[in-house]
Amino acid sequence: MCKLAHLNNFVKLLCSVGLSEEKLGFTQEQIIICLRLVFLHEAKEVRAAGLRALRYLITDSSTLEKVLHLKVDYLIARCIDIQQNNEGERTQALRLVRKMITVNPLLFPSSITNSLIAVGNDGHNERDRLSRACVAIICELALKNPVVVAQAGGLSTILKSVTDCQLSRINEALITTILHLLNHPHTRQFVRSDVEFEQILAPYTDFHYKHNPDVEEGQSKEDRETRFMASKMSIVASFRSWSGIINLCKSGSTGIQSLIGLLCIPNMEVRKALLEVLYDIFHLTIPIPSMNFMEALSSVDPSRFQDSWRLSDGFVASEATALLPHRSCSRPDLMHNYLAFVLSAFIKSGLLEGLVEVIASSDDIISIRATILLKELLNMANRILPHSQSLHLHCLPTLVNVAASFDIPHDKRLRASAAVNNMKCFHEKKKVQPKPCSLYLDHILRTSGASHYTRDQHCRLQKDIFIIKDTEDALMTTLKESHILNHKESLDWDWSLIGTILKWPNASLRSNKGEQMHIFVRRLLFFYKPSSNIFCSLELDNPKARQITVVGCQFIEFLMQSEEEGQGFLEDLVRDIVQWLVSYLGPRSDQCMQSSSLLTTLSQYYLLFLGTLSSYPCGVKMLEKCSVFQCLLNLCTVKDQEHLLKLTVTSLNYSRDGLSRVILSKILTAAADSCRLYATKHLRVLLRANVEFFSSWGIELLVTQLHDRSRAVSVEALDILDEACGDKANLHALIEMKPALTHLGDKGLLLLLRFLSIPKGFAYLNDKEFVTYQMEKWQKSYNLRYVDIIEEQLNEALTTYRKPVNGDNYVRRSSQRKPKPHVYLPVHLYGQLVHSKSGCQLLESQNVVYDLSCHVRSPNLDHWDGIKQLKAALWALGNIGSTNWGLNLLLEESVIPDIVALAYHCEVLSIRGTCVYVLGLMSKTKHGCETLKQEGWDSVRHSRSTLWPVVPEEFEAHLKPITLHHTSSVHNGTQTGHPDIGLNGEKVESREFLEKALYRLVDPTSDNPQTLSCHHSFGDHSLLLYRNGNESQDGSNDEIDVSNERTHCSGETEVQSAEQIPPGASHTLPRRAQSLRSPSVTPLSSCSLRFRSAHYAYTSPRDALGYATLRRLQHQRIQPSLSHNEALVSPAKDILYADAITMNTGSLDSKLTSKRFLKAMSFASHDKEKLLSPINQSTLQRSSSVRSLVSTSSEDYIGLALPVDINCMFQVRETPYFQKMSSPSSEAFSAKHSSGDSGFTNGLQPARPHFAELVAMSLSDPLKMLSSEDTGLQEHNDNNCLYCAAFCKLGSNSRRSYPELSEETSVAERATPPPANHIDTLTRINLTEESICSDRFSHGSTGSGHSTEIVLDGGKSMSTDTPACRVLHRKEILRLIINLSSSVGTKNHESNLLTIKEKFPCAFDDICLYSEVSHLLAHCTFRLPSRRFIQELFQDVPFVPMYAAAESVLSTSQQRT
């Protein structure tokens, strides 16, 4: 096609010379006037080329303004609306639309917006393949110009598409657009969060929800599951943004309350779907559907095998990354801050109670899922919630009540009881660290020197009962029962007994004497030798594969510890393995066969056997003797042996200097890219496994990898070094090497900044003037860059976003579930400087804190640059406040209250989230926790290395023991004594004085109020008091000496005497305590001493024992080196300490008063004398020293803080919903053209005259019929007409061409027919619906030709060429088109318009009428079928005057030339 070639050449011309009018010879307006004619061409290829040319033409806002002024947007919308096998044309139109958004989104026309929205709303039903593309463009436009989208109803289109899309990336992009608008107060007005935003919950909250009303009954279940999936994605995405969390949890919102309330409704389908939502929100693995709890629990075990752990994939490097903890125990993980905030919000809304209801009233599968979720959340709460918000969670009074109450139905009680037992199993499982899945990782941990690790229980063979029978007969019996002597089939052997024989402690067994033992060893040797092809041919999925491999490693150890004959057997086996390795150096075809067998058979474990040998000095000698290391070195340079090299790197032991490290170094530098990358990742495994002396050799290898030719390798090495520097020894080793890091970009710079945290590194960098340069750089720009770095990491962890690698702009995303993400806080310059006094002085000298505080106190929230500047200041202040040195600087500036105020009241919701992170950084120290506590924020006061369950140390810090010594003598059931009590140095002569003294200790109104925990035993009346007050740090204890003798009273008298101990203020037990308390407990006397604090209450003896158990576990973890007697103090002390803890917590379910505590002691032990053994002073001092040790060693906390009342974070100032700007055309058309069934009428319309009356009026008095301004086009002017706008630009008078549109033309002139040569360009508009359907008249012509007359009932005729009839035609067509915007009577209106087109086809050949209709489509809402119908009505418009305008442009140019 000639035109197509011209258009392509025109694009090439634009690319070469640009838009220079001098070079092109035409103005931009003239080019656009000529170019728009291409959009009217009949060939779709030409129209597509024209759209492409216009896209290249629009380069700036001025050109776009000219395009829009000439109303070319009407024609672009026309291309988008019409679908006639023209996807290429419509695709070019959408690309042009995106170019317009890029150039200037504020100029984007409403005509194209409405077209995009129509396709987005109805394109799916119309099978339009571009519907998703249109929705994506709407989202892009909503971010840059939300006003035009909101006025056209585009946000409803986005929300509708959310529940219509099951692709996670698309769904997330859609809902994130809405969340972005909710984030800022200027755009929040466009979304009604309580109506529009919460419609994403509709599939769950509406049990009869139907997304499409035409869904058939047979497909309703499938459609509902689809909507559940889409809604789940959007809900999870909402809870992963601060604007979504706050809007769903804010007061007055029913978002989170609706979700939790659904748990109490017995709808199994909704419960199952909602549990999956909760699992995804908290990044938990969903258990498999099972009626067996242990099976479901094992499916969520982090140690379960995963596909990414295969040899062909990430192998042990991936497994270790998932199972082994991060090296740094104090580096804040921002994901914990996020999860703690969300978990606290859900708990405050009643999530735990809802889950208990699900457990008790659902079927077994759902009940088990809810039980696992409940326990996971309780575990999470114990680890990452402040103790004041999590201490009551483990009591679960509701669940215990359901399990213990006989008023509950039997089936509910059974499920609740089963849940309690299952949670106990879960608790025991959580106390054990994750076990390695592969034998390789197990081997690394056992040989790495990690003292805390022993071989996993599941890896051990069954307990051998023959170990204690150290006799020759027992050994022979075991040999026979193992079947190894009399069975040739190896799988029939009893491998458990074989392992027992290999571990036999008898020395004679190691000497290999006896014929049967020789046969035993030879048969095992023959089985494991590669040349026998028995062991190496077994498949990996064989049920006995793991057990056989473990026995093989034990066989290797057995031979190493044997005498010379055993060494000979071992050498035979090793040489056979070497021959097997040499086969990999053979021809390429043999290599391929061997490599494939490594993936599927046990032959891969031969490298593990060699690794076992490399862990012992004698084994290393054997490897050297058999030339194993030389063979492995040769394999390092062989191509296509990735799997074998992976096994080599993983199996060898590197704890000793030797050839193993040489092989690792060679693979790190000489192997293929994939092998070098895996070897680098394996260094992280060794780091986390705590291999001995890693800092002396591992850091050097990592620094070498920084200069690798593969960027992936260097980035991985850099990330491992960043983690390794959490250990000071590794950081010192790195500083000694003085590596070059600046060439590695941002990560390299941030790693270099870690040098500043220690004096040696600070001096090194300061000598090079690095610190001064970086201070200037960060103050100017890098603080802003830090915000981008940290938010990119958060986005990657919380969304499906993937960071581009190697500079690529596109990253293919996988639908595979990501492992639980971690976002460790990036290094900040200021955060490293405040680790030393000199760094703090540098910050203070440059007024850094003051400048940052000014940004916090006077933020500019109207623009995104100001918001980013505020975030940069907040992150900088948070890093400064992460140490005691820096916190003092913040306290001097008094900026912390301002940050707290921003967290509560900032209208930009993402700023609140940033404040949560920042305040968490300030809680890394004890001083910071105390400071935040004064501001109403609680902090987590333990490090990441603290083992679960966590017992907070703040209670230890506030407790000071007071000993009370009492001597007594018992004679024949009576006991006498005289009180002789020393209290703070004062002598006490009577029990009444002691009671008064105790009252002063516990009375809040006293001068020095103390919180008292008192134990008054029944046997020897020993009393132990703990006080809560400001104690001296030396741990000195006040003593109360008691020496008395008095008559031993009866049990009743004992209770009465016990009542004189101060009780609690409330005598009402919690429901859980009522269900568990002993019947022997009687209420306390009301006249006894009371605590004034209302939050003290009772607990049960079972809780006392539980807290004692937790306390003993905590002592064992804190001081494992203590002796048994030192670590496990008497049960009485444990329970007393538990009482001291519970009296300081404020929990309704975990309090003890003195009377209740005395009863608890009676149930604590059957051995009363042992229980009531006196507690000496040395034991208390030892306990105090342990607590002081914990306080000093765990000073650096995880950095997490939450407000005491989290609802304060959810207060959002209500913004009135924006008022849509009604366009003049919409109002005019509604008032002047709409009938009663129009969708735009808001009230009663005046009665319209009937068509016959209008015709009679036009015949009798045309001057009366037409006013001086009535043309039938209400909004027509020179700015919104395709024809008139062009002629205005060209300087012509459009009124001469269209006298009937001129406001200055007289009425008489209007009554005169126009010249004949204008017949094809005049507007001929049809009449009303009544004019077609009325039986009072008929049209004179029914053909397809031009209709020139209308015949009335009386036989009179009226010519349609009169101006009056043309006006009536216009009005009638516009009225019917307006009615198409309503879904009522659409078919009727369409048939009437088709009848008019059939009778009066010339009525649609009017450019001005089409421009009026396009204007109407641009400002009113029409469904896609109606838009396409309207566009097809005017598809035959000749547009002759537009061609004339183009010809005038060309003629003018020719005249100039």
Strand proportion, as a percent range, falls in under 5%
Order of strands in the sheet with most strands: 7-8-2-9
Helix vs. strand class: mainly alpha
What's the Cα radius of gyration? 42 Å
- Main sheet characteristics: 4 strands, mixed
Shape: elongated
The parts where pLDDT drops under 50 for at least 5 residues are: 454-469, 507-513, 954-1099, 1117-1194, 1221-1255, 1262-1268, 1292-1358
User: What's the total helix number?
Assistant: 76
Intertermini distance: 28 Å
Estimate the helix proportion, in percent: 55-70%
Number of strands: 13
Could you tell me the mean pLDDT?
A: 75
Question: Which helices and strands, and how do they pair?
Answer:
Layout: H1 2-17, H2 21-24, H3 28-35, H4 44-57, H5 61-69, H6 72-81, H7 87-103, H8 110-122, H9 131-144, H10 146-151, H11 154-162, H12 168-183, H13 185-188, H14 202-205, H15 220-238, H16 242-249, H17 255-262, H18 268-281, H19 293-299, H20 315-323, H21 334-348, H22 351-361, H23 364-384, H24 387-390, H25 397-404, H26 410-430, H27 439-447, H28 472-481, H29 495-502, H30 507-510, H31 515-528, H32 545-560, H33 564-582, H34 588-600, H35 606-613, H36 617-625, H37 628-635, H38 642-651, H39 659-670, H40 673-688, H41 694-705, H42 711-724, H43 728-737, H44 745-753, H45 759-767, H46 770-798, H47 829-833, H48 837-845, H49 848-857, H50 864-880, H51 884-893, H52 896-905, H53 909-922, H54 926-934, E1 937-939, H55 954-958, E2 959-967, E3 969-971, E4 974-976, E5 981-983, E6 986-988, H56 991-1002, E7 1013-1016, E8 1023-1028, E9 1039-1043, H57 1051-1059, H58 1071-1076, H59 1101-1118, H60 1124-1127, H61 1131-1142, H62 1154-1164, H63 1168-1171, H64 1177-1193, E10 1201-1203, H65 1224-1232, H66 1251-1260, H67 1262-1265, H68 1282-1290, H69 1294-1297, H70 1307-1311, ...
